[in-house]
Design goal:
The complex is a heterodimer of chains A (452) and B (244). Chain A is mainly alpha-helical. Chain A has helices at 2-29, 42-48, 65-84, 95-106, 139-144, 148-163, 166-180, 184-213, 218-228, 239-242, 255-260, 269-278, 292-312, 316-329, 334-352, 356-362, 371-382, 385-403, 408-422, 424-437, 444-451; strands at 116-120, 127-129, 134-138. Chain A has a three-stranded mixed β-sheet. The longest helix of chain A has 30 residues, at 184-213. Chain A is globular, with a radius of gyration of 25 Å. With 244 residues, chain B is an alpha/beta fold. In chain B, 39% of the residues lie in helices and 26% in strands. In chain B, strands 1, 2, 3, 4, 5, 6, 7, 8 and 9 form a nine-stranded mixed β-sheet that branches. In chain B, a hairpin with a 4-residue loop joins β8 and β9 (213-222). In chain B, α2 crosses α7 (228-243). The longest helix of chain B has 21 residues, at 65-85. Classes of the chains: A mainly alpha (452), B alpha/beta (244).
């Protein structure tokens, strides 16, 4: 009998160990980006088909029936386009936790409200709510937050917009804008003032909800700070980690480039400052009500997903910057190394094709102020093609040598880079290597075609 | 007498040019696209897009959503019919028909569509020695904009390496009739005075997922509404050129 119990205990211990080790070592060694899987959830499908119900409870006599109908159509269509774009996650590991927080917050509303949360692949730290109750949090925002109370504040703020009917009121405002002021500039000023008032009202609503739920209201101040400055920003020269020769780029005067872009109106420093002034003194409360571990897990995943989505969106300098930042925490992570190699290859390709400036201009608006990122942009603009080639070549080859049996992405990047610089004959061994090790891989058809 | 006849002829010619359908066309293609060795037989068409814009008198432009989605169905049919006439089979990926088990659309095709549009916007076709070509009507280039090679497995799945994006944008401007036409040629002038100005753009982008590049890109503009007849002519001509 005792032997049986011991046997069970030993087996349970090994099962536990087997389960725990991969969970903890997953991010240390590698990361697999989230891909859509399983059946499309019902609520997602409704948005996809433009069949969510847009309730208008605000009585506004100045808006005709036709205009109200148009508002509904516009809302449904905008959501339909967004959901069809493939930029919204479903059946992913982050959404259930975020939904749980939302559910807890909604419990404290005087009347029941239908708010459905989704996470988008967008890397800017932002969130939005529609009049049909669709609340979308960007993955870039989830990566930027530091605790559950901050996340609760963002969600409560958006619930506030929804409960105060701001999407609808803003639509009315836009429709009637030309009647408010005659000059365009006056209209713009009126719009900014109106938006600022809406943000402040939503902040007040969120603080009240946060206090009722038991979260610390200090998180509101922290969130507003995080919206203007990237919390991963560093004074260090990240490029030096790539190659010792890149230490020289610290002498580059980056001030003019840092001043080039203007910050988006939603995060305009003035508006943030005014919102912060209005926030009351902090109240006691909890940083975590649900789970510290779940938040950490979601936050870690979000940081990797930001890198993946920046790459998919061709924002290669941002991808490189965040990969280098995260590599400090996970120095042996294969995924991060592959993204560094792939970003360098893409940047070199654009440089060689004389399209780098166009690419950088396309992503000119920084998501938020991050000096380390600006330094990378500045360096990419100024470095000459040969020097860049040498640096990228050495680094990609170094990664290839150490990871050629573990990373499909690094092998294909090495092959493509060699072909781009030296032609197909020199690249052939790398393509052959790909076929030998990753025969069923996603790039197989491409490799076969190159070798024809 | 001869001078007055000549003048009349000039006026008529001028009026004819004024009233005729005008437009522009620009085509970029790689040298290897649809050569004798690689005849294009099948296209996977990624959710064609129809957009109707209307600018009112106050210069406010609005999207006409409902009418555009009705037109989208017509566009799908027109594409299908004209491709067939030119010997190209089309597999239409219509998002209107997605069902709850269509996860592959979000895993593969939506990212591919975004990748093609992104590459087409950010990169150019390239001629020898990496030079960007000058803009002409018809261009054959060494290579096209590069897309990710992770989509190459789709060639086996869909039995063709060619994936295309088609779209129509029609912009209706406020009615602005030409007074000179109303005075000089009342029948034409009255028509022009009350009919709105419409610009219609039709675009096609074709990517070869096996070679991971955009192989064909076309944009054409006609100053006429996106009616069935007009689109039919434009799309037939487009497929004829693709097949050449």
């Amino acid at each position: 009998m005792k032997i049986k119990i011991y046997k069970r205990l030993i087996i349970s211990f090994f099962i536990l160990l087997y389960g725990i080790i991969p969970a903890f070592s997953q991010l240390t060694d590698n990361y697999t980006p989230i891909e859509p899987k399983g059946k499309i959830p019902e609520r997602f499908f409704q948005s996809l088909k433009g069949k969510t119900s847009v309730k208008i409870v605000v009585e506004d006599e100045q808006l005709s029936k036709r205009q109200k109908r148009e508002f509904k159509t516009t809302t449904q269509f905008a959501l339909q386009e967004l959901f069809l774009s493939g930029d919204i996650y479903y059946n992913d590991p982050c959404t259930p936790y975020v939904r749980q927080i939302t559910k807890n917050l909604l419990k404290h509303l005087p009347e029941s409200a239908e708010v459905d949360v989704f996470i988008s692949r967008f890397v800017s730290p932002n969130a939005a709510v529609w009049q049909d109750g669709t609340l979308i949090l960007n993955i870039g925002l989830l990566a930027q937050l530091e605790n559950e109370a901050q996340l609760a504040f963002v969600i409560a703020h958006e619930i506030g917009h929804h409960q105060l009917h701001h999407p609808f009121r803003q639509y009315i405002r836009t429709q009637q804008l030309s009647n408010i002021q005659k000059r365009t500039l006056d209209n713009l000023k009126a719009q900014v003032a109106y938006n600022r008032q809406n943000e402040q009202d939503a902040d007040a609503f969120a603080l009240d909800l946060l206090a009722k739920a038991g979260y610390t209201t200090n998180s509101a101040h922290e969130v507003l700070n995080l919206l203007t400055r990237d919390r991963f920003d560093t004074n260090e020269n990240l490029l030096k980690d790539l190659h010792p020769s890149l230490g020289a780029c610290k002498e580059i005067d980056i001030a003019p480039i840092l001043n080039e872009g203007s910050v988006k109106s939603h995060f305009a420093p003035n508006m943030i400052a005014q919102r912060q002034e209005r926030l009351p003194d902090t109240q006691d409360g909890q940083l975590f009500l649900l789970s510290n571990q779940n938040f950490k897990r979601m936050n870690d995943i979000a940081q990797f997903e930001v890198i993946e989505n920046a790459y998919r969106g061709a924002d290669y300098t941002f991808c490189l910057y965040r990969s280098l930042v995260l590599k400090k925490e996970y120095p042996n992570n294969i995924y991060l190394k592959s993204k560094i190699a792939e970003s360098l290859f893409q940047l070199y390709l654009y440089k060689k094709r004389d399209r780098l400036l166009q690419l950088l201009r396309h992503h000119k608006q920084p998501h938020y102020s991050a000096e380390a990122h600006e330094k990378i942009i500045c360096y990419m603009k100024r470095i000459d093609e040969n020097a860049f080639r040498q640096m990228a070549e050495q680094l990609i080859l170094q990664y290839y040598k150490s990871l050629k049996e573990q990373s499909e992405s690094i092998v294909i990047t090495q092959a493509k880079f060699t072909e781009l610089v030296y032609g197909i004959d020199k690249a052939r061994p790398y393509f052959d290597h790909y076929l030998e090790y990753y025969k069923g891989g996603k790039h197989t058809q491409y490799v076969k075609k190159r070798l024809e | 007498m001869k001078t007055s006849q000549g003048f009349l002829l000039f006026v008529l010619l001028f009026l004819l040019l004024q009233t005729s359908c005008r437009g522009t066309l620009h085509i970029d293609r790689t040298k290897n696209f649809n050569s004798k060795t690689t005849d294009i037989e099948k296209l996977v068409c990624l959710d064609p897009d129809f957009e109707l814009l209307m600018t009112s008198g106050k210069k406010r432009t609005q999207r006409k959503i409902k009418r555009a989605s009705a037109k989208e169905i017509q566009l799908n049919n027109t594409l299908f019919r004209n491709a067939q006439k030119n010997g190209i089979a089309i597999e239409m990926i219509d998002t209107e028909r997605l069902n709850i088990s269509d996860t592959p659309y979000f895993r593969d095709l939506a990212p591919l569509k975004r990748e093609i549009l992104q590459a087409s916007f950010l990169q150019d076709f390239i001629n020898k020695k990496g030079k960007i070509p000058e803009k002409q009507i018809f261009n054959r280039h060494e290579s096209g904009p590069v897309i990710g090679s992770q989509f190459s497995h789709l060639a086996q799945q869909y039995k063709t390496p060619y994936f295309s994006i088609h779209g129509v944008t029609s912009h209706r401007k406020p009615v602005r009739g030409k007074l000179i036409l109303l005075v000089t040629a009342p029948p034409l002038g009255v028509a022009s005075f009350f009919s709105p100005e419409v610009d219609t753009y039709y675009y096609t982008i074709i990517a070869n997922v096996e070679t991971a590049e955009i192989v064909y890109r076309e944009i054409r503009r006609v100053d006429a509404p996106a009616s069935d007849t007009n689109l039919n002519a434009v799309i037939y001509d487009s497929f004829k050129i693709i097949k050449k």
